[in-house]
Design goal:
Length: 193
Amino acid sequence: MYEENPYAAPESVSGLNPYVSAAPMPTDHFYVDGNLIICGTPVQLPAICIISGETEDLVLIRKTVDWVPKWIYVTLLAGLLILLIVYLVVRKQCKVSYYISRRLRNRKRWMVFSGFLCLAAFVMSLIAAGNYNLPPEVFVPLGIITFVSSLVLFVLAQQPITAARQENGVRFWLKGFKPAFFDQLRVMYSNPG
């Protein structure tokens, strides 16, 4: 039995079928494909928080999402400089404007701030252990804990949108959207008005 995608935007919103059209994606349209958004670059997503699905007290975020093929990391065997050069040559970029709730944005900012505090504590523990001949059994574990904590906080503070796939640098499949975003998107486009 044929079932329609409940998250798909209606034809009047999305325009041409992205799988049929060979032309570049229009930048004012996007399409839903499962848990991915298919779009051109640049794209402006509707005023819905991509994490919580909230529609009030939002902050606009502009982000350039890079896509590189997975094989690029093999060039690391040739050296970090070679990896960087190949990365800059083969990457494709998509400019995305999306919304996130102010509450979640502030939480991510606090995570970044806390990450820098943990990194500062790591550096201070290294300096203290090296300069004052303090017992390493205290400062080495403290340094490891603060360094790992800073890395975890920096990773958690990252914005979730990434490019899963691209075609010719004009059509991108973006991932990282939460189910609440798709639920609110379905409600928004089922009630045009």
